């Protein structure tokens, strides 16, 4: 049905055409993903069993692609890498087409609803409509469950053949605690006194048989105590199960049987609507150039790229980004065209990626598999806006030698959510969580300037504009006029209005819809130079930092809502 894991001892070695540097780069990415997105380079060498010089070359090529950065001795995955998983999700069309129906069901039932797809003998999440309840663990997009733990697996296993079952048994024997599935708590040993029957795995086959007849499957605390779920398969017009929709609850609210009785009819209606949506023709090719984002290094000369840059690795990896919405199935010719690779080279990249399980083929057309999501998607899609911003603020501080911060609007205040200090120039110490009145700060003005005019007027009518220094603007009409200038200029400069001697410049950070979600600033001594000099010295670097954060946010926010705090 699908591909053996490359770690499976019974799986064949790489085909002779495989591109070794591409395989090495993927093993580095997998290792980093398995370590929570960050690892010391020395440990990476041990974990991948590659030579130090090889790891260095892989890391510098990945850094040039924007997929990894180094921080001291650590290599760190960057949000940009999410573009690989995004390519799979866009090509599958499942989150785009079915996600809104899943979200609606979650709203109606006030329970979490998820979409998951089969991935080998596992189940991988591709969409989550999560209710914020702290009682049980919530899976992230990209997380993998063993098929036998959780509701969707039994639905998928209904289509397994004897080879699939053999592989499942082998995996269970080789990994008795589910260590290969870091998203789930360890499986209790079969002979542990408190172990459910399921620990032996014997129950799974019976559940699969029942699921095949009933067309639903339930999870009665197979993953952790308290967590219950019911799932129904979604089939394409050819009758193949393409994904499962699960409704998830907790035994403190409902037992597994109560949940099933309460939600199955509504769940089935949603699935019928989903199957109708899947019957519509697939999206047209958006026509966008999928690899345009990599144009800068693709155009660069070998000399510019340096001896550490391994082109076969870079071009092989971005082969994955040739796929996407409207480009779910591509021929060798189409891939060669999209990536600028010679046919023979593109063919070797495709063969390598297929061998590793990231592509499936019918011999003619290639498709991405959900396994692409194992390349850091779950970890990176969980990043918050401040975490995304932090390395960019650090790079900004390196350039301008003054402190940089990020803040969001919170009532009439700004709230600091990220900060990289240099020397302290303010008498008050700013830490995360610090609040200042929005009207007297550069970040506050940038944030206020983006509010809809009616909301802004309403706020200014209510707020008392307190003078914090003798320079603070306290006249609402003058503040309104200043905000118009801020909106037109795309930045705010505030001189000694919050504190004597303090000057601050701020620009907005916009999400993929263009909405201002945060502001970033640099604060400096007012006495050091004129406002005009400060603008010239700081604004270009500040704008670049904001643009870099926005670029990450565009990739990271494609399928996930990124929290701003
Ligand atoms: C989930 O979406 O979190 C989920 C789905 C199915 C399960 C358990 C949890 O069986």
Question: What are the key terms here?
Answer:
binds P-hydroxybenzoic acid, alpha+beta, Arc Repressor Mutant, subunit A, Beta-Lactamase, 565 residues, globular, 6-stranded antiparallel beta sheet, disordered N terminus
Physical arrangement of strands within the biggest beta sheet: 6-5-4-9-8-7
Radius of gyration: 26 Å
How is the CATH topology of the largest domain named?
Beta-Lactamase
Bound molecules: P-hydroxybenzoic acid
CATH superfamily of the largest domain: GAF domain
Q: Note the gap between the termini.
A: 42 Å
> What's the CATH class label of the largest domain?
Alpha Beta
Low-confidence stretches: 1-7
Give the overall silhouette: globular
The second-level CATH architecture of the largest domain is: 2-Layer Sandwich
Query: What structural class results from the helix and strand content?
Result: alpha+beta
The number of strands is: 18
Task: Describe, in plain words, how this protein is organized in 3D.
This protein is of the alpha+beta class. The protein folds into 3 domains: 20-86 and 286-380, Winged helix-like DNA-binding domain superfamily/Winged helix DNA-binding domain (Arc Repressor Mutant, subunit A, Orthogonal Bundle), CATH 1.10.10.10; 96-279, 2-Layer Sandwich (Beta-Lactamase), CATH 3.30.450; 385-556, 2-Layer Sandwich (Beta-Lactamase), CATH 3.30.450.40. 42% of the residues lie in helices and 18% in strands. The protein has 20 helices and 18 strands. The protein has helices at residues 20-34, 41-48, 52-65, 82-92, 94-109, 152-157, 162-174, 202-214, 256-279, 295-299, 302-305, 311-318, 332-339, 343-355, 377-380, 385-400, 442-449, 453-462, 476-489, 531-556; strands at residues 38-40, 68-71, 74-77, 112-119, 122-129, 144-146, 217-220, 227-235, 241-250, 330-331, 359-361, 365-368, 403-410, 413-420, 435-437, 492-495, 502-510, 516-525. Strands 6-5-4-9-8-7 form a 6-stranded antiparallel sheet. It has a 6-stranded antiparallel sheet with strand order 15-14-13-18-17-16, with helices on both faces. A hairpin with a 2-residue loop joins β4 and β5 (122-129). α16 packs antiparallel against α20 (531-556). The longest helix is centred in the last third of the chain and has 26 residues, at 531-556. The protein is globular, with a radius of gyration of 26 Å. The structure holds P-hydroxybenzoic acid (PHB). P-hydroxybenzoic acid binds at residues 112, 114, 138-139, 150-152, 219, 223, 227, 229, 246, 248.
């Amino acid at each position: 049905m699908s591909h053996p894991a490359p770690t499976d001892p019974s799986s064949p070695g790489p085909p002779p055409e495989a591109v070794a540097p591409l395989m090495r780069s993927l093993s580095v990415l997998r290792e980093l993903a398995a370590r929570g997105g960050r690892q010391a380079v020395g440990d990476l060498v041990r974990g991948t069993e590659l030579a130090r010089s090889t790891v260095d070359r892989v890391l510098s090529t990945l850094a040039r692609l924007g997929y990894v950065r180094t921080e001291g001795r650590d290599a760190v995955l960057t949000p940009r890498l999410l573009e690989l998983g995004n390519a799979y999700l866009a090509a599958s069309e499942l989150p785009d087409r079915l996600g809104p129906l899943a979200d609606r069901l979650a709203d109606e039932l006030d329970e979490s609803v998820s979409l998951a797809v089969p991935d080998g003998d596992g189940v991988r999440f591709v969409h989550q409509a999560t209710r914020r309840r702290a009682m049980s663990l919530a899976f992230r997009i990209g997380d993998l469950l063993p098929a036998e733990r959780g509701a969707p697996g039994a639905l998928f296993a209904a289509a397994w053949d004897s080879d699939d079952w053999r592989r499942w048994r082998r995996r269970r024997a080789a990994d008795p605690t589910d260590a290969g599935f870091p998203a789930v708590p360890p499986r209790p040993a079969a002979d542990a006194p408190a172990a459910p029957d399921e620990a032996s795995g014997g129950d799974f086959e019976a559940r699969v048989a029942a699921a095949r007849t009933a067309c639903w499957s339930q999870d009665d605390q197979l993953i952790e105590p308290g967590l219950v779920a019911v799932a129904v398969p979604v089939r394409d017009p050819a009758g193949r199960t393409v994904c499962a929709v699960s409704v998830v609850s907790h035994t403190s609210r409902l037992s597994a049987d109560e949940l099933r009785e309460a939600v199955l009819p509504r769940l089935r209606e949603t699935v019928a609507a989903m199957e109708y949506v899947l019957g519509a023709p697939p999206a047209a090719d958006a026509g966008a150039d999928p690899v345009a984002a990599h144009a800068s290094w693709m155009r660069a000369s070998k000399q510019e790229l340096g001896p550490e840059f391994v082109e076969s690795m870079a071009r092989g990896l971005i082969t994955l980004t040739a796929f996407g919405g409207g480009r779910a199935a591509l021929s060798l010719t189409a891939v060669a065209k999209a990536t600028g690779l010679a046919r023979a080279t593109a063919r070797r990249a495709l063969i390598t990626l297929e061998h590793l399980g990231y592509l499936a083929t019918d011999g003619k057309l290639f498709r991405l598999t959900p396994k692409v999501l194992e390349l850091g998607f779950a970890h990176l899609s969980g990043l918050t806006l401040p975490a995304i911003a932090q390395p960019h603020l650090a790079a900004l501080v390196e350039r301008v030698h003054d402190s940089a911060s990020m803040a969001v609007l919170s009532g009439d205040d700004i709230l600091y959510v990220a900060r990289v200090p240099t020397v302290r120039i303010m008498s008050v110490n700013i830490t995360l969580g610090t609040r200042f009145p929005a009207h007297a700060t550069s970040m506050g003005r940038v944030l206020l300037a983006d509010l809809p005019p009616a909301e802004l007027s309403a706020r200014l009518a209510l707020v008392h504009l307190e003078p914090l220094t003798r320079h603070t603007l306290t006249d609402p009409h003058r503040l309104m006029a200043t905000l118009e200038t801020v909106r037109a200029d795309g930045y705010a400069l505030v001189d000694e209005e919050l504190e004597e001697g303090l000057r601050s410049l701020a620009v907005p950070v916009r999400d993929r819809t263009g909405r201002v979600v945060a502001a970033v600033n640099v604060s400096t001594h007012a006495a050091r130079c004129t406002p005009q000099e400060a603008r010239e010295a700081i604004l270009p670097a500040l704008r670049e930092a904001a643009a870099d954060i926005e670029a990450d946010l565009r990739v990271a926010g494609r399928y996930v809502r990124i929290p701003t705090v």
